[in-house]
Request: fold
Amino acid sequence: MEHEIRLLRWSLRVIGVDEVDRLKPLALEVLRDLHEESEVGMILLGLPGLERKLSRYAQVYGRVGFVHQMRALGVEEQRQILLEQVERISERRVNAREPLQVDQEALATMIRMTEGNFQRQKHVLMQIERIVQINPQVDVVSKEVVEAAREQLVYGRG
Reply:
């Protein structure tokens, strides 16, 4: 592992680790060792209560520089992210006649159904991409396309 540590030391400055609240104590120790050996910064992300969980592990908690409670994204921020992602989907389309457009009702529907949750946004966008890839005549992401994408998701039905 010494080789990997040297690579990390020279190639990265920060490692982001999501869902830290789900990690077992041994995994937290591995992260602590990695931080210590490589001198790479870490951003630990998790659900509310993560700080309380980490406080039970003094060796890890002693290295926490600060805790920041993330706020939910605003509607305009969500709108911008979704538009950028649809643009990326549009760039990957094969046999498309026109760039992919998004109507305002579809955007509002996506924002309402995902509630600013990045995982939900990602899953909805993956389904939208699948729909427009197999239907090259679709040039507009409409509310109907969003609804069809939601129907493909386990939590989106109903």
Remarks:
- The chain has a mean pLDDT of 86.
- The beta strands are 14-17, 41-44, 101-102, 140-141.
- The two ends are 49 Å apart (CA to CA).
- The CA atoms of residues 87 and 100 lie 7 Å apart.
